[in-house]
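Appendix B, Record 12. Input sequence as logged:
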Amino acid sequence: MKLDGFTLGVASVQSARADHGLDLDLAMPGRGMEIALWTDDTDAALARLVAAGARVLSEPHDWLGTLRVAWVADLDDNPIELVQRRPVG
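Logged structural output:
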């Protein structure tokens, strides 16, 4: 769903586990969502975050043929997705 430049996407926990290898504990209070940050270079963004002390939840990998994604945990251990649109072809 898009509204005034804001995009809201919905995905299942099963997809996060099966497609990306995330081990999310949704029984923890406040779980059930993530933030996706779009970047021009997922690998470089992840490297900068790891150098600053972020914990990797999922290494960078290609997904759906056009995306490169990775996950880190924020300071409260919430999942943050890094996403890059890759050129097709």
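The mean pLDDT is 81.
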